[in-house]
Amino acid sequence: MASTLIAVDDAIQHMLSAVAPLQRIEVVDLMAAAGRVLAEDQIASCYVPPADNSAMDGYALRFADAKAPLPISQRVAAGQASQPLRPGTCAHIFTGAEIPLGADTVVMQEEIVLTAFDDVCVPSDIRIGQNIRPKGQDIQAGQCIIKAGTRLDYRHLGLLASVGIAQVSVFLPIRVVLLSTGDELVQPGEPLKAGQIYNSNRFLLQGFLQSQGVEVVRFIQVRDRFEETLTALEDAADSADLVISTGGVSVGEEDHVKPAVEALGQLSVWRLA
Ligand SMILES: Nc1nc2c(c(=O)[nH]1)N[C@H]1C(S)=C(S)[C@@H](COP(=O)(O)OP(=O)(O)OC[C@H]3O[C@@H](n4cnc5c(N)ncnc54)[C@H](O)[C@@H]3O)O[C@H]1N2
Ligand code: MOO
Asked: Has keyword Mitochondrion (predicted)?
């Protein structure tokens, strides 16, 4: 009978080719988006960092001006807008603050010497561009930062927030009904009588499905009766995108899932190798 068995990979291919991806979409706040699957590519509409900023507390200046003592013409802290730098001067600047237009170098405050007039003298071994985090170093505007189909985790939330995205389109979860068949099944927590066995499949499946972001909308347990199995399958199909049943698929008199499926539709994959 080996020739009637279907290889697992073939069965998976067969089932995948028979279904279409669900396209139900909703918009959720970023805080509620962890674990959800993105429905659209996410494009950055701004740069990160949004402007050149200082990696150090110190003095921003034009590299070309660095040889002479430089009077301090402005003070810029993080969160403040800066003014264009007056030629021949420097700006007292703090970590995270925007580099004034015209400045191209930052010297740490530990490395400078103040003259008697509070002008700033910088060492001779500075490099142009030092201690500046350039605009767009992390992300460029227009760049796709996350592709549709990505399941969002905490790292994606941080990335989306960094470009100011507050809401995202995500797919609604797949709705699954779990159907356990078998007169012998008992829920954990109940006493186990002769002939009975604990329903472990339900917990295994439900736990796995939930970990995959699937919504288990209902659990049904049926006894080994044809009518009961038929009714349960019909009910389940009404409220679910997918019904997963366990048990009742052998070939004995007590196995009603196969005839019930055939009575309601068609069985297209049967007997796996
Ligand atoms: N002259 C010196 N300057 C600095 C020294 C030093 O030894 N001498 N040490 C540097 C080191 S090391 C560090 S670390 C930083 C620490 O500075 P801050 O604590 O002021 O930096 P942050 O406030 O953490 O900002 C860094 C950067 O990140 C941005 N930021 C801050 N919070 C958020 C947030 N919630 N979301 C997004 N981005 C955030 C902030 O704007 C800055 O660009 O000091 C060096 N300086
Ligand atoms: O070394 Mo800082 O103090 O974390 O970048």
From this structure: no
CA 239 to chain centre: 27
Which domain CATH number covers 109? 2.170.190.11
Decide whether any atom of ligand 1 lies within 6 Å of the 58 Cβ: yes
Q: Are 132 and 76 in contact (CB under 8 A)?
A: no
Residue with CA nearest ligand 1 atom 39: 96
The pTM is what?
0.81
Q: Pairing state of beta strands 53-54 and 72-76?
A: unpaired
pLDDT digits (tens, 9 = 90+) for 56-100: 999 999 999 999 999 999 999 999 999 999 999 999 999 999 999
Residues 163 and 35 both lie in one domain: yes
Nearest CA to ligand 1 atom 16: 95
State which residues form the domain around 228. Answer: 2-23+173-264
- Assess whether 118 and 77 both reside in one domain: yes
Two tokens at 269?
């994959």
Ligand 1 pocket mutation pick from 95, 110, 122 by most atoms within 8 angstroms of CB? 95
Question: Is 185 within a domain?
Answer: yes
**What CA–CA distance (Å, rounded) separates 165 from 158?**
10
Same domain (yes/no): 177, 200: yes
